[in-house]
Design a protein that fits this description.
With 313 residues, this protein is of the alpha/beta class. Helices cover 26% and strands 27% of the residues.
Length: 313
């Protein structure tokens, strides 16, 4: 099969489009013909060696986590899927999605939303699961609460706004001037243009502040966080880890960071949100697999609005 392979860490130039052996599935896995994937920051951070403490120096590596495609074979223990099923889901760390075929654990996949194309479905798993688990599992979001999403037009933020609304919250989205209309279209109740207004200097207090782009420290946000509010970041910086540990044992405000845990149950929940019109994706750009290097470079510019889709012919 054809795949994008890296044999060392480095710039986008290390992404090589070449022939490799097709993966062999285990009893609890699906072999999926990949129709589409997407780019997440973790993909290019892994490529650059920023996560080498986890990935080590074992090469070659095929990156990419998000998959949407067709099941072509199932392991002996798989009962939830059959050949021909259209699915979406996640590969296991450190990836494997940037290829014509991918092996996916049965419990990391779900039926593809019926009203989405493969390219659209492939933009959902990692980013939307991150948003869902940040708000529901870490923020303990409740209907009627006041939630702020910083980075509301980004890959995680677009889903966080919609999920918070679906769970009954009043949502404020923070983004740049050019994305105000987009965030409003995602049903945000209020939108703050960070180029003209600093939300940490406002008078409104929030039950949950979700920093979906990890740009505002808890120390800046705490004055607009309610006494028992929760600050959630997507990046486990030293400050977040220390303050998270300290606030764990103290009453009042809490600091947490989200590490997405892919699972089929949450993917099914997201499928329901999508099919009932409560959530949609936003695709900034679409690239063919062989132009993945250009897609990574665009993502690294950190100006992506929504998601970047990768499609296979």
């Amino acid at each position: 099969m054809k795949a994008i392979v890296i044999r060392r860490y480095g710039s986008a130039d290390v992404l090589n489009f070449q022939e490799v052996e097709q993966p062999k599935i285990k009893p609890d896995q699906l072999l999926v013909k990949v129709h589409a994937s997407s780019v997440n920051p973790i993909d290019w951070k892994t490529r650059k060696g920023m996560l080498s403490i986890l990935t080590g120096n074992k090469f070659p590596l095929i990156l990419g986590f998000d998959v949407a495609g067709e099941v072509v074979a199932i392991g002996s223990q798989v009962t939830r899927f059959k050949e021909g099923d259209a699915i979406y889901g996640s590969t296991s760390f450190p990836g494997g999605a940037y290829a014509e075929f991918a092996a996916i654990l049965d419990n990391l996949a779900a039926p593809k939303p019926n009203n989405l194309s493969y390219a659209e479905a492939a933009t959902i798993p990692l980013a939307a699961l991150t948003a869902l688990q940040a708000l529901r599992d870490l923020g303990n979001i409740k209907s009627g609460q006041n939630v702020l999403v910083n980075g509301a037009s980004g890959g995680v933020g677009i889903f966080a706004v919609q999920i918070a609304k679906a769970l009954g919250a009043e949502v404020t989205g923070v983004c740049s001037s050019k994305n105000l209309d987009l965030v409003k279209s995602l049903n945000a109740d209020f939108v703050i243009d960070y180029t003209h207004q600093d939300f940490t200097e406002g008078n409104v207090q929030y039950d949950i502040i979700f920093d979906a782009v990890a740009k505002r420290a808890f120390s800046n946000c705490r004055k607009v966080l309610k006494a028992n509010g929760v600050y959630v970041s997507t990046l486990p910086t030293a400050e977040v880890i220390v303050q998270g540990f300290l606030t764990m044992f103290l009453p009042g405000q809490k600091v947490k960071f989200v590490l997405e845990k892919p699972n089929s149950q949450d993917l099914v929940y997201l499928k329901e949100l999508i099919e009932t019109g409560k959530m949609r994706t936003v695709i900034d750009r679409t690239y063919p697999l062989e132009e993945l290097a250009a897609a990574h470079e665009y993502s690294e510019g950190e100006r992506t609005v929504g998601k970047i889709a990768i499609v296979l012919s």
